[in-house]
Automatic annotation (TrEMBL):
Protein known as: Aldehyde dehydrogenase family protein
Keyword Metal-binding annotated: no
Organism: Cohnella endophytica
InterPro entries: Ald_DH/histidinol_DH, Ald_DH_C, Ald_DH_N, Aldehyde_DH_dom
Top-level taxonomic group: Bacteria
Phylogenetic classification of the source organism: Bacteria, Bacillati, Bacillota, Bacilli, Bacillales
Pfam family, one: Aldedh
UniProt xrefs under Gene3D superfamilies: Aldehyde Dehydrogenase, Chain A, domain 1 (3.40.605.10), Aldehyde Dehydrogenase, Chain A, domain 2 (3.40.309.10)
UniProt entry keywords in alphabetical sequence: Oxidoreductase
Length: 91
């Protein structure tokens, strides 16, 4: 099933083990591979910017030194980037 999903996507973002990252990279589809334990968040124009910023800051502040249980990186749609960054700076 993973292979079928990979074939149908425009972009692959995987944080699974080496085999999945390798499959994503060799699929011919643009891919980002972070490996196990690197949680990502994708924020698009439908996001509530204030709530999202609050959640991101709180999650990282209280992750109990467990990197895989909180966001390690975020991918933000350009249309909400400035508002999200402004809110995060305010916090």
């Amino acid at each position: 099933m993973s292979q079928e999903i990979i074939r149908q996507c425009d972009l692959i973002i995987t944080r699974e083990g080496k085999a999945m990252v390798k499959a994503a990279y060799s699929s011919g589809t643009p891919a980002y591979g972070a490996g196990v334990g690197n949680a990502n968040v994708i924020i698009n124009k439908t996001a509530d910017v204030e709530e999202t910023a609050d959640s991101l800051i709180n999650s990282k502040n209280f992750d109990q030194f467990s990197g895989c249980s909180s966001e390690n990186y975020i991918i933000v749609q350009q249309s909400v980037f400035d508002a999200l960054m402004a809110r995060m700076i305010d916090l």
